[in-house]
Amino acid sequence: MRLYARVRLSVQPAPQLRIDGIPSEYSKMRQSLLDTLRMLGMDSVRIQAHRESDLPVCKGMASSTADVLAAAASLADAVGQRLSPPTLARIATGIESSDGVMYPGVAAVNHRTGRLIHSFSWWPRLWVVIAVPHTRLDTSTVSFAGKSARSAEFDTLLATLRRAEGERDAHSIAACATRSAEINQEWVANPLFDTFQGLSVSLGALGVAVAHTGVVLGMLFPDTQDGCAAARKAMNQLPDRCPPGTTFLLTQLEGTRAWPDA
Question: Closest Cα partner for 101 from 76, 77, 73?
């Protein structure tokens, strides 16, 4: 599934800083521009911004992080510079906790600092059935107080993922995703989780995944003919088990991610 945020900027000299074209609800994008201007040593400019995005908002699909990164990268490009993934990560996490979308491929990062912990050289191809409920979740309302007490278990999950990477073990990777989702239920309970997990077991899925600050869920199937057939069964059965307004997508996870060319 290739969904992106794109930000196009016109940057002109001006007597004082002025940023136009950013609606009030995209304050994080505006803050990204301000932080990037400060990093680049720029202040007296007028910026005209235009944003496009096909990422659903408040679903846990990193829509705000994508806006932040697209704005920062576009501003740097407009003045002939290019920001490295670690620099983009620092900008993003200076505004809010972030995942590793700024790094190529699949990466584990410190969500508070943006520090790269591990970049995976291998990730399984999977069929993924995605459910996007009509409900929304504002990231700023989520509290993870007490979650640090589970840090040892998360460290174990990451160690298991790294071992599974070396062994090319898709089952272990999906099991880690499922366990992570189960833990997350203690803080952000997804009302569709039990439905998803139960159906995944009956259809022989490898596991499930959830957005840790959102409402979207995924059911993971192997990249085989049987896996594809089971995923299509899930697509057929889920609408009767989920609330009206839920949308469903069937896509493939390829383990690669890159910035779009335009």
Answer: 73
Q: Which residues pair with 248 in a beta bridge?
A: 131
- Quote the pTM value: 0.88
Domain of residue 202: give its range. 121-253
Convert the pLDDT of each residue in 141-188 to its tens digit: 777 777 788 889 999 999 999 999 999 999 999 999 999 999 989 888
Tokens linked to 100: 């590793």
Crossing angle (nearest 10°) for helices 225-237 and 193-203: 140
Within 110-192, residue ranges assigned H as helices are 151-167, 170-184
- pLDDT(257) > 60: no
pLDDT score at 260: 44
Cβ-count burial 116-134 (b if 16+ within 10 Å, e if not): beeebeebbebbbbbbbbe
Higher pLDDT residue, 105 or 68? 68
User: 89-95: which pairs have CB atoms within 8 A and are 24 or more residues apart?
Assistant: 89/113, 89/114, 89/115, 89/116, 90/114, 91/32, 91/35, 91/36, 91/39, 92/32, 92/65, 92/68, 94/35, 95/28, 95/31, 95/32, 95/35, 95/68
Report how far residue 141's alpha carbon sits from residue 204's, in angstroms, rounded to the nearest whole number. 35
Dihedral angle of Cα 20, 22, 28, 31, to the nearest 10 degrees:
0
- The letter for the amino acid at 141 is T
Round the CA-based radius of gyration of the chain to a whole number and report it. 20
Domain end marker among 93, 111, 130: 93
Same domain, 203 and 139: yes
Same structural domain, 161 and 204: yes
Q: What is the pLDDT of residues 8-27, one digit of tens each?
A: 999 999 999 999 999 999 99
Average of per-residue pLDDT across 52-68: 89
